[in-house]
Amino acid sequence: MAALLRVVNPEVGMISPRTRERMVATLRAAGIENERVLTAMAQVPRHLFVAEALASRAYEPVSLPIGWGQTISQPLIVARMLAALLDSGEPQRVLEIGTGSAYQTALFAALGMEVFSIERVEGLHIAAKELLQRLQIPTVHLRLGDGSCGWEELAPFNAVVFTAAVPCALPPLFHQLVPGGCLLMPQADVADEQRLKLYRWNGQDAEEEDLGGCRFVPLLSGTVNQKDHIGA
Ligand code: SAH
User: Fold this and answer.
1) Distance CA 78, CA 37 (A)
2) Using an 8 Å Cβ cutoff, are 91 and 159 in contact?
3) Contacts with 60 (C-beta within 8 Å, 6 or more apart), sequence order
4) How far apart are CA 146 and CA 111, in angstroms?
5) Tens-level pLDDT at each residue, the chain (232 residues)
6) How far is CA 135 from CA 17, 74, 110, 113, in A?
7) How many other C-beta atoms can be found within 10 angstroms of the C-beta atom of residue 155?
8) What's the CA-to-centroid distance between 100 and ligand 1, angstroms?
């Protein structure tokens, strides 16, 4: 975390740390109690994960466009997901499906996790790679591809986290978890009603916890290459 802040400090002048502190106060008021989550979110400069034109809105309680029809998740849902993950045990190796802006990826790393993150849109994957390198976050491994089937070669993980809504028909990736690991995902029913679900896997069965309603972009198949979407 210290390295992260040292590198970005020259760039954060225009957005004062007080703006981030206000975001954290809002999260606290909304019921987020995990101090480690709040500290990490007070430190990771969310405005660097959106386009410059949207930087001044980065700390508002909303999701924002990041290009290619995708969005950076709003701070409260990110905080809820991180808190649920930490409360489920301290995951060391985390598989994230849907890197997007890499904001949540950077937060996993800031919380001491080794992150393996897959993104299907090449433009987002490349931008995420450049930003995380610039921020000198070493514990992140990014891959371009369709993450619906996880990352078999590098399994097992302590946690698998989807940041796009998973259709209820898709078989869950329990086989890529260690016993005692958890699967966190927005799950969509046939009418696209979405619930954030946490599954605790004991090696044979999964115990399900419903963490409430949510709204995510859908999990899609295949990849989108730069040449397919010039100027997206
Ligand atoms: N946590 C991210 C969320 C981004 S939105 C953030 O806050 O920025 C969800 C992301 O999932 C999008 O970038 C989308 O392109 C990606 N995605 C959707 N389906 C996918 C799939 N099958 N494999 C990998 N990434 C996928």
Assistant:
1) 9
2) yes
3) none
4) 26
5) 444 544 444 454 467 788 999 999 999 999 999 999 999 999 999 999 999 999 999 999 999 999 999 999 999 999 999 999 999 998 999 999 999 999 999 999 999 999 999 999 999 999 999 999 999 998 999 999 999 999 999 999 999 999 999 999 888 999 999 999 999 999 999 999 999 999 999 999 999 999 999 999 999 999 999 877 554 4
6) 17, 21, 11, 16
7) 17
8) 5
Determine the Cα–Cα distance for residues 73 and 77; give it in Å rounded to an integer: 7
Catalytic positions: 73
Whether the Cβ atoms of residue 62 and residue 74 lie closer than 8 Å to each other? yes
Q: Cα 205 from chain centroid?
A: 25
Give yes or no for residue 20 CB within 6 A of ligand 1.
no
CA of 23 from ligand 1 middle (Å) equals: 23
Q: Give the C-alpha distances (Å, rounded to integers) separating 39 from 62, 93, 113.
A: 20, 21, 15
**Domains of the chain (ranges, CATH numbers):** 16-213 (3.40.50.150)
Do 180 and 157 meet the contact criterion of CB atoms below 8 Å apart?
no
pTM above 0.85, yes or no: yes
Neighbouring C-beta atoms of residue 43, cutoff 10 Å: 18
